[in-house]
Specification:
single chain; 252 residues; alpha/beta; 5-stranded mixed sheet; 8 helices; 14 strands; 25% strand; binds fe (ii) ion
């Protein structure tokens, strides 16, 4: 790993096996002469191109942490996995799984920058969003969001998992930021109640971070790409309903 530039870098997350969205994002990052990338997990579980995504990521110089789906690929028996984890598991060999095994769950990039998948203490918890009893997604109250930072000395907290780009500022210049999802703009989940998460854009999402004298500057990026090959792969692995989310960012 070359020296990570903690004052100017890109944050990516939730690729979910979308190799073509990943390629578009990596090209966009390099076109801006940004060399340092941190990747917040859920890399390979998805119905599109898990093995190809693993090969792309393993060949690229970046820092990565493990998401809940990456952990499930290592911990759960194949027959008990969800269908997108099964597609990934069936395409991966021991070298890919070993690459996942060496990833930490959280990562401090510096004294100032803390990375996690969900929250610092859980790869399954939505940090900034809540789900109502009716399945509506809402932004949590600031004090509830702030609770998760207790005990961690950092001014920039990076998280993924909800696939929603969001920045929330806390007192003393602290920032929590989710770069959105590179490869999966929407999904349906039944935990804690049935709910739909949708970004509303089919573009591949990520974020750029820059340290300034006034605090953390951030830019949310949306990179359009051609999803047709990924849609065909999703169909051929038995996930035709992924077409709408990949093409539009909306979940029907
Ligand atoms: Fe996740």
């Amino acid at each position: 790993m070359s020296m990570f530039n903690t004052e100017h870098f890109a944050v990516i997350a939730d690729i979910h096996s979308n190799a073509d969205a990943l390629t578009a994002v990596l090209d966009d990052i390099s076109n801006q002469n940004v060399e340092s990338i941190v990747n917040l997990g859920d890399h390979l579980s998805g119905p599109m191109a898990p093995r190809e995504t693993a090969e792309l990521l393993m060949a690229h110089d970046m820092l990565s942490i493990c998401g809940n789906h990456d952990r499930w690929l290592l911990e759960i028996e194949r027959e008990d996995m969800g269908s997108i984890d099964q597609v990934a598991f069936d395409q991966l060999d021991e070298s890919h799984l070993n690459w996942l095994r060496q990833m930490p769950t959280t990562l401090a990039l510096s004294d100032e920058i803390f990375c996690c998948h969900g929250t610092p203490s859980s790869d399954m918890t939505y940090w900034m969003e809540g789900v109502s009893a009716e399945g509506e997604i809402f932004v949590k109250p600031r004090n509830e969001i702030e609770k998760e930072t207790v005990g961690i000395e950092a001014s920039l907290f990076l998280c993924g998992h909800t696939h929603l780009q969001r920045r929330v500022d806390l007192p003393e210049g602290r920032v929590i930021l989710n770069p959105g999802s590179v490869g999966c703009p929407g999904y349906i989940d039944d935990n804690p109640v049935h709910h739909v998460v949708q970004s509303g854009t089919g573009a591949a999402c990520y974020a750029l971070i820059e340290k300034t004298v006034h605090g953390w500057a951030s830019t949310f990026k949306h990179v359009p790409y051609d999803p047709s090959r990924m849609i065909e792969l999703a169909k051929s692995s038995g996930h035709p309903h992924w077409e709408e989310r990949l093409a539009t960012g909306w979940v029907g």
